[in-house]
Amino acid sequence: MLATGSFLVGGLSILAAEAPAEFSKPAWLTDCSVGLKESYDNNVFLSGVNPKLFPASYAVPAGGVAALPDVWSWVTTVSPKLGFNFAPLLGDGQTLKYLSFAYTPDFAVYHDQASESYNTHRWLTSLKAATEKFSVNADNTFTFVDGSDISPLYPGALYNAFTTSAVRERRKQLQDKAAVTLQYDQERWFARATAALTYYDLMTEQINLTGYQNYCDRADVNGGGDLGWKISPAFALTLGYRYGHQYQEQYDFSPYSSSSDYQRVLAGFEGKPWHWLEVKVQAGPDFRNYPGNTATHITPVNNISPVKFFGEESLTATLSKADTFTLKGKQWQWVSSTGKIPCYDASGEASYHHQFTRQLGLDLGGRVWSWDYNSGNLTTCRRHDLQYTVNTGVSYVFNAHVSVNAGWSLDLGRNNEDDIANPQAREFDRQLVSLGTQIKF
How many domains does the chain have? Predict the structure, then answer.
């Protein structure tokens, strides 16, 4: 848009066009961008099974697909993003720090495997407010995946647990993840109330067929509080308690499911012991209570009142202006997405970012993930699966509006269960390479 000015010529006022006025993004518009990524996936279904192990015949439900090894596809993903922070419009920023809403969808097209194409619609909301002594933080991510409502079928039910979980994320479903904290601060201590929700509503058809992936609805909700003792203004020791419930849907054609109640006592520390290091750790016993068996329901566990370890850790080290190192981990008792027995879920990941110049950056990462199902008492469900992931990426920022990135990742699924026939049927290798660009407005 051109701005105008005027000047006098012989007593007459003449209008003249000035240079274009530079557009300034309003403070409440935090993000307006679109990303485009082209990827190559050399093992779409994360299967490594030798076809010699497949049954002589198997049935694939109408509209479904057989998940075979080394099936590849080119994938195009378009990812627009629109974000708002309404705090500048509602106050002076002293009490209401942040009130944001963002819509971040992904539109993914699998050119060579049409059954795997999906659209993910993601809505993120966040609230941060504080007075001299009180602060509140609330975050919610609501996701709708518009994908196939028919799950894949793995011939002979031969797969690694991480195989089916990756494919599940492309199926039709709702997810909701929320967390709320209210904290009261004093000079040497603080008290904090907290609540959290994780919810999955899987909308795929449930079919009682060997190898077909039935995905159950699941949820975890808990609430409690923490007391903190400030060792320094930026670092504290904590003691906390949580009471929660986990829900696992029972299929119409099966008597098994593993819903439970739990209580946790957590000790930890959080904050910045040094200016360059930020940490948060909470860990302690998880006292679990599973329901007893009835005429219509069986809880397939070895112990209905086990004590498990819960831990959640994060560490961010800013080693220099150009180097950042991050560690994250979580260990907890959860329920499997395919029903029946619970799973002990343990993971750890590390990432490193180096900024060579203002434009050029490098990312390196790795992850180890373990799913142990041996707290269940069904011999047909003996399983302990692992996944190892390494990844790297390079990004280049041309200017404030345009950047490009390239990435590579390797996933290795491995069996960790002894004395089972054909353990290689639970293993896979998958490589994913990508090239993308992001345009910011």
Answer: 1
